[in-house]
Every structure is written in structure tokens, then in C-alpha cells.
Amino acid sequence: MANFNIDAKKELTYDAIVIGSGISGGWAAKELCEKGLKVLVLERGPIVEHVVDYPTMNLDPWDMELRGGLTPDQKEKHYKAIRSGWIGTDTEHFWADDAANPYTEEKPFLWLRGHQMGGKSLLWGKQTYRWSDIDFKANAEDGHGVDWPIRYKDIEPWYTYVEKFAGISGEALGLPQLPDSHFLPPMELNCVEKHVKGRIEEQFAGRNMIIGRVAHLTQPHNGRGQCQNRNRCSRGCPYGAYFSSNAVTLPPANATGNLTIRPYSIVQSLIYDEAKGKATGVRIIDSETNEDIEYSAKIIFVNASTLSTTQILMNSKSNRFENGLGNDSGELGHNLMDHTYRVGAIGKVEGFEDKYYKGRRPNGIYIPRYVNIDEKSKSDKFVRGFGYQGGAYRGGNPANIEAFGAEYKDSILKPGGWEMFITGFAECLPYHDNKISLNSDVLDKWGQPTLTIDAEFKANEKALNKQIQEDAVEMLTKAGIKDVLGFDNEHPPGYGVHEMGTARMGRDPKTSVLNEFNQVHAAKNVFVTDGACMTSSSCVNPSLTYMALTARAADYAVSELKKLNI
Amino acid sequence: MDRRKALRKTGLFAGATILMPSMLSLFESCKSENRLDWEPLFFTEVEAKTIASLIDMILPRTDTPGGLDVKSDIFIDKVIAKTYDKSGQENMRAEIAAFNENCKSKYGDVFYDLNEADKTTILNEAEKNSGKFGSGVWGTGVGPQETIGFYRSMKSMAIWAYFTAEEIGENVLSYDPIPGKYEPCKPLSEVGNKWSLG
Asked: Which residue among B143, B165, B198 places its CB closest to the CB of A62?
């Protein structure tokens, strides 16, 4: 792959500016470049070139001095994100510096960020599910939040479009609540998962257990290699087997010759021209030199990740928008959502002691939503629903075995017993008082105001979690699993890393920030297509929907640009 | 140069019964001369010998290398020196001291100077009252989590150090850095020991 053009010195004017290069920013860049626009992508962190900049991708534990352990300095740098339990030496460099980029938790909230080219697309879980009309109609039907300005039919062609390019593996089921994607062959369940699937499906009508639908290639696709089952995804994949901006969207954007990507560019604000009634560019701070620079463009895509996108809009104050660009409704910063996380059940599986597996499949099982999808499945305890992820594996903790010495040592060289867990992800309602605000008392390393996050799960989410745990225990128990333990870690929002909302789409400019094509109602050349745009949260993973909304909005933006409407 | 591979080669030439000469000298120095042949970054000599003795009781050499053969003690010393903060380090010192105090009060000596039977009694007791790790999902504990005592914690660290040592990871456990195809239901007999990479 050719090196990226990072020289944004000569040229200060572009057709389009894309803020951020993660999942949605990468798609915006690709679509806009391929449609012939000169595009400047502003990336807060360094360039991460596919393969070249994956320093840990092939390291075994013993190749790392501390075999994954973090030094006190690294722990200090990630003093918030470390709570996630995911950060080790192998991926430390892809997680943002919490010390340089502080935020304030009015209530506990874990904000995980990836400040580099590709953003969190390098680190995400790759679970990819279409939303259904049950999701797009939910707000209108139960009265929470505002109605989505789109329906499934509006986004369906764009799901198809992004899936065919990204490559999604999975099994078609024909479920109305979880529409099928265009699938590459599914990954496989292991023998315990197959067994449990059979037991659950025969005892619980309407419930399915399937292999996760994932953005991993199960066969070569568009010049990328297939998954080798190493499960070292978050270090960067040398085969380009999972979807990341670095491997999938930015290379073709670059190949058009229309892309400039400027690293170390912190977007301070958008510039709004009152006479023209639109945004004319952005102000950035070079994070290395502290230089202030302004870039101009006809259209601006804000894809900085949910909270950062809204932070930029809030910080874009003008006479016209005293409370942040596009905030006529007062909803900017509000209706923050995330999925609930780590509530479910785990137990031991007997009878498969002579069975094992080969390969570290970067995927698990999925149990699609089965409550509140029709009259029959309606709950009187909560609205909306949940799905489960999980998996079976041979594990056990050999340190727990009450033994030591020669016989013990030899025994722990063999795999431990089978275990299986399922853990739910519940939809979170859009609450006006779950919000973020600018904090001028706490400044970041570059003197910019930071965010205060004030959000919590409420009664509906707690009722969903209660059901998740009860059902998980019941399903595993009836599947014949032993020592079933229900759990609810009561994680606050943020742990699901599906933060959504704060600049929601809607039909009415009085109650929403964006319209049906992700345009800021009152500044039509500004588009927001990352998680900030979401009007509700569904219970399924949102990234595929960001991809589809972005491709759709980019298509619309270019057609509007050609018609001279924006 | 790759020191480990060079040592292994030496061992091979010398014959199968003679394992890694430098390791043997480490053993001897621990047991008879009462001093270390390596310089700890964190441990005092007493602490290092206590940890080495613990590792040797938990993961002794059999027909596969023991914990000390793959320098688990030296690695644990490095982990404590380089990843623990001050209070974690102080706590570690206090716990090792308390462990040895218990040995002294019961048998009159620090752990590594006890005879095999007394060491065994001490560890059997520690197995009973050091807590157990709870279940975990995706890197974080779920459900009730007991307080983990010094022994269980050190045992866990010793196992980690052992399983992630190159010799064990590549040559004792089943090593498969690039699996390629996922085989979802494979007879265990075709794999043998567990996979080293998780």
C-alpha cells in the first residue's frame, strides 16, 4: 500500500473535511474520495499504517519483557481505561492517554478512546448486526425519546452496500428482530456450544443460539486474507482479516489520490459563517507543535467518536449558536446511551473431557433478542430487549486446585474442564438527563475544555438486567450445565463501549440535532454519522449501523453538493 | 544471541540426562551454598530464596522442566520490580515476611530451610486458607470474589510465569502461533497438552 499523503501544509482548502478516522470516519473518507472529492481527514493521533505500524502483531508472551504486564507509568497513563480489564503491553499503544485527555465522571462512566488513525476500529469486538424495524420504531411506539427519522427500508440498501465491501461472516436465520446480512460463511460453534444450542432451542421456543455475526473474513475477500484464528486482533491483523479503517476503508480512499490525512490534529471547533448559514471549516491545534491552523471545506463530516463529536460541536460557539453548533433544540449533549454489560451466567460443562479445539476463534455465540418482539413475547416488567454473547472453552484456574508438586504440575499441563458463559447486552433508553457538558475547570494538555459525563442506567435497564440474569441461569441450567452462577457486575455505562446519542437524529429540529440524512438541522453541510447520531440504542452492537448511515449520508452529501443545495 | 536455544543445544550434546548446566548450578547454590547466583531487582536474598523454594515445591522438575528451570523466580522478581507500585511492593514484602514468620513459629525456620515434610504441611495449610479465584468473563471477575491470600496469589503468579516461559510455551505445551483453520471439535488425544497461547 502506498504511503499516506500527510502533507496538509500547502493546501488549506478541501472539498470535504472528515474529523476522525475510526469506523465511521474511514467510511466517510472512502465514499467521499471515491466520488471524486478532495478530502482532508483530521486525525487526533499518529498515522497507523496497516501492518507496518502493528509492532506487537506477532509477539508471543515470552517475546515481551513483562509478558503483558504494565509498568506503573503505563498504568498511570491509562488510569481510567485500565478498569476495562483489556489493556496489556500488546495493545497499550492503541489506547488513548487518560492523563493528557482527562474527563470528569459526575457519575461513574468508563470512556474508552483510541487516539490514532483507525481509532477504535483497531480495537473493536467485530460483532456486526443489522438493526430491525423493531428498533427503528421503538421510540415512536413506547414513547421514549423521539422517533427515528428513518426506517429499516431506508438503511437496508446501505447495510448491503457496506457488508459486501467489509465482509461479514455469519449464519442467516430469517428472524424479523435480527435481519440477515449478506454473509460470508459462518465461523463454527465448538462441540459444547453445539450441544448447549440444541438443549436451549428444544426447550425454549423462539430462542436461538448462533455463532456470532462478525466482521472477520472466513474466506479471502477484496484482496484481504482470511482469519487465521490467532485471536490477536487488537494488535492489528497482518492478514487484514477483520474490519478496521486501516485495513479496509482508508487504503482505497488513499488509492484515489484524493485523500490527505493529517495526523496529530486536534479539532478545536467548527467555523460557522452566519451570512452563508453554514460551516466553512474547522480550527485545529497541532498536538505536537501547538500550532493553530484553520482548514476550509464545502462539507464537514464529524466522526470523532460519539462523545468527542459532540464535544467539538459544543465547543463550536458563535453568535448564531451560543450553546454549540446545531444546538437549537437544547438536545446536544443529551440522551447518552450505552448497553448494559457483564450480566449473565457461567457454569461448568461435563461430558466432553475428550474433546478440544484447535485455533483461537475470535468470536463466540450469540442469542438474539427474544422478548418484546411481538405480542406473545411482551414483558410487563420492561420495554425493549436484550441479546447474549458468550462461549464455551476449556479453562479453569489451575491455581485454584488444592494441590502442588510433581503430580499436580503434570496435571495442569492438560487443559482444564469445559466452562460456558452467556452475558447480556440490554438496550438503554434515551434519557434527557443522561448527558455530557463542557468543563472549563478541567483543561486537557492543550488547554481545551474537557467533558463532564453524567449518566446512569435507570429502572428499565435494571429490570432488563434482572431478566437477563434469571434467563441466563435458567437456560444454562436446563442445558445441563453444572454449578451455574448468575452474575451482575452492575457496571455503569461506558463499559459496553457502545456509547450512543448526544446529537440525535430526529424529524423535528426542535427536539433533535440531526435530520434523516445526518445533517445538522441548522447547518446542512455538517454531517454527523458516528454514534452521536443515534436516536435509540437497540440491544445489538451498533458499528454496522454507523457504517451504513455513513455511506448513505456521504452519498446524499455528494448529490446535494452537485445540486448546489449545500 | 538466543541464549535459551544455545543452552538447549549444549544439553543435547551432553546427553539427555544432563539438563542445562547453568540451571543445575542455580539449584545447588540455592540448596547448599545458601546464596543466589543472580541479582534480584526487588527481592532481598531471603525473599528470593523463599519464592524459589515455593516455586520448586509447586512446580518441581519432573520429566518436564520445573518452574526454576525456566527461571520463574527471576521473572517474578522482575514483574514485582517493574509493574508493582510502591505500596504493592511493600505489601509483597510484608506478605513474604508473614509467611516466613508462620514457618518460624511452627517449625523454627524460614520456609526454604524447612525439611520437605514441614514445607508440605505449611503448603497444605496454605491451600486451605488462601482463598480461591472466582469466575471471570472477558478479563474481569464475575460473581463473588474471595480475598486472595499470599500463597494463592504467588502460586498463580508462578503458574503464569511457567506457562509463559518460552521453553514451556513452545516445547512443553501445544504451541500453535498461526492455527489457520479453526477445528471446533478435535479429539484431545490429537492435541496432547493444552494450547500455550490463549
From this structure: B165
